[in-house]
Design goal:
This protein is mostly helical. It is built from two helices and no strands. The radius of gyration is 30 Å and the shape is elongated. The mean pLDDT is about 80.
Length: about 80
């Protein structure tokens, strides 16, 4: 917190030079691109996983793989 207060005080006294180490907008945009690619890759991976899961559930329902065998009744 002290660091932020010192930078703000420097900003008040000297203008924008107190924030000289702030990243330019084009650098922030360039750093955003890998984050977006990672997000899209993970989203596609999750979508593929859900697709496989739903396909397996549909196949199990079609071929009745989830039915329980009939219980034997005692006579």
């Amino acid at each position: 917190m002290t660091y932020i207060a010192q930078r703000f005080e420097n900003f008040r006294q000297n203008g924008m030079r107190g924030w000289a180490r702030a990243q330019p907008a084009y650098i922030r945009v360039l750093l955003f691109v890998p984050c977006l690619v990672e997000y899209l890759a993970f989203s596609l991976l999750c979508l593929a996983g859900f697709t496989v899961l739903i396909t397996l559930m549909a196949l199990a329902a079609i071929f009745r793989l989830d039915d329980e065998p009939e219980a034997r009744r005692p006579r």
